[in-house]
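User: Hi! I'm a student and our assignment asks us to look at how structure tokens line up with a sequence. Could you show me two examples?

Assistant: Happy to help. In each example below, the sequence comes first and the structure tokens follow. Example one:
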Amino acid sequence: MNQLRLGLAYGLLSTRRRAGALALPILTTATGAFLLVLVLGMASGISAQAAALGHADAIERAVVLIAVTVLLVGVVEVAVSTTRTVVHRTRELGVLSATGVPRPPVVAALLVEPVIASVLGAVLGAVAAVGTAAVLAATGAAASGVSAAGTAVGVLVAVLVSAVAAVATSILPTWRAASRPPIRSLSSGA
């Protein structure tokens, strides 16, 4: 347990060191979260308007699907960033393995970065969406209206989906990297 905690601390330090490289994944995830929160905040109004036009269920599903797709594109960007990180840190991983650090703390250290990037992006996007929703509701600019409950669900879904998807898309490259024999990692040209 202590080694896992050390792995997480090491991952936090590494993430702080690479903060600039995380700007694009954070921004992409924030964009998806922003859209998802706004769509879910206006979902009941969209459904009511769509019902008047017909095909309410199909329109609502399409709008939510588009928002979730944008959110997942951001998380995939986080996974691509993780893969680049693993490639650039090959020798470092070899040193950790050669000094006897077990695989779980190394994997935990490597997963910190994608989880922080995706959750931070989701939170930033959700905050921007909540602010935008408040302005839309106050000014009446959203013809469909903005639901506080729908917005809250959107925030929760955006953050949870981002965190789970970041782990799901990043676990394989990090596990593979942590499983390489130290001699291969140390002799790598990366």
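Example two works the same way, sequence first and then tokens:
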Amino acid sequence: MNGTAIAAIYRNEMARFFRTLAQSFISPVLSASLYFVVFGAAIGSRIDEVEGVSYGAFIVPGLIMLTVMTQAISNASFGIYFPKFIGTFNELLSAPLNFLEIVIGYAGAAATKSMFIGIIILITSFFFVDLQIAHPMAMLAFLVLTCVSFALFGFIIGIWAGNFEQLQLIPLLVITPLVFLGGSFYSISMLPPVWQTISMFNPVVYLISGFRWAFFGVADVPIGLSLLAIGAFTAACLGVVAFIFKTGWRIRQ
């Protein structure tokens, strides 16, 4: 394992993040604040509790997940697409690196960025709601796993994308709707039975449910299924990345 090369890629990606530090943090904080005002205050005033948790606090895990997933995907996809676009990625491929070292550098930086933003939103939430974290270590573990898995997914999107518009296609048309329909701002048990069954086919339900369990000790699905879902998703993404580098799909121009 070439640690020097991994560190070089990682530092380069993180430097780009810190160059735009203000907008990287201010935008998520403003968005989170608006969600708390609209959902927590306006809707929360009409919904006292959900599964024994105040509605303002109940939406915090879903809001963090929404931001973390989209940020991990966008950072990873842009981070790998831009070198492809300007042609410097070919130099990286010609270097004595294996695919795992390249992925760790790019996906690791994207996961770190999204985790920073997730923590910032968590800190912001304490200014709006009375929040208790029942299982802090489990919360951190779910946050890290989600950041890593969706950074890998974003890496795949960056390899697949043929232009800048396609970088936004999957997050806008697939990920964001799945998160909103995955129990981000409500409990699956509040839905009619038919829609509860349909929701079980949404993989994001398991991630949000597990993350919410770490906060409040309540979940829509068993915690074991949540861990299995995120583990399977991470393994699938790694498998796809390995296939891409083995076959050269979309990376050999």
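Here is something you could point out in your write-up. The chain has a mean pLDDT of 87.
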